[in-house]
Design goal:
mainly beta, five-stranded antiparallel beta sheet, about 35% strand
Length: about 375
Amino acid sequence: MKTFVAVTLAFAGANALVPRNHICCFGLSGGASGTVGQLSDGQNRFGGNLPAGSFCIDSNGGITDGSGRGCILTPPTTQFQCDMGATPNTGFSVGCQGELSSNGNSNFYRCPTGQNGEDNIYIQPPSGQQGCSVITLTASSCRSNCPSPSQAPSQAPSQAPSQAPSQAPSQAPSQAPSQAPSQAPSPAPAPAPSPSPAPAPKQCPASLSGAFEFPHLIIPVDSMKPNQAFGTSFNGQITSTMASIFNFDIPASNAGKTCSLVFLLPKQSDLQTSSFTLSGNGGIDFSSLSGTANSQTTFANAPKVSQEFGVTKVSPGNSYNIASFSCPAGQTVSFELQASGDTMLTFFQDFNPSPIGLYITVC
């Protein structure tokens, strides 16, 4: 609960610091090193059961954390941390495999601090520091520069050259029969076979056990304040007047694959770095939109609904496969969650154990 409250209250500061255009948010992990957590002062660390950090990257490659602090490489040690009031260092990027790079360098170092088993993160290990090891930081989303799937050149099926007979038969029959043989009536055509039933659409797992996409933008809209743009959020908010729009950027490499829109709502006791509040009947109306949202989207100018997926009643400890479809590779798509009945749900979207929120799984 502490993490949830801190992120919710501090996001107004993040909106003031992060440029509105081309913002994408993510979490960080280091493979076997675990999740990147944060101290209260913004130092990014591994270990120590620290709350997971949340980060957003802008179009200039500047990173801001969930508390609105600019992330920098502190001179002269190049420690990766986020400081209140600091202007973010630019030049960060997230590659096709999710690897975080600084000016093209994806090698980071974790070095022990001697405090609670925690390790600081650097671009270069400090001089004389013992026990450092090289790591790769992987973002949970915001992947870019993915090549389009290779396409084999299409080939027309080979055709054997048609051969006309070289010569007509040398002799016609000497005599035609005096009478044409009687002709039997043509048999009636066989009835056309009944069409096979259409196969059921393929569904991907309603879990993050395989490939998945994290929402790159979450926008709340409120019918009571139809012209107010609330900007980006880390939280899904669903009430009688408030809905949330989720943007997903689908990589071109997902061409030809199946995507499933899934909603995960674990038990409160299974959450480590997130939290939620739920009341009412639990009904959520899921739909896809005809366009995409941005930081200036309001209730009044939000894209129209293009397809209704119906109402799903959710309860803690369950996961739900909302809809499956051919992956819209290379596109950004938006989905809206609205309350049905008296549902009120607020959650911090988080992929850490246990994952919670709206995702697209790929298979």
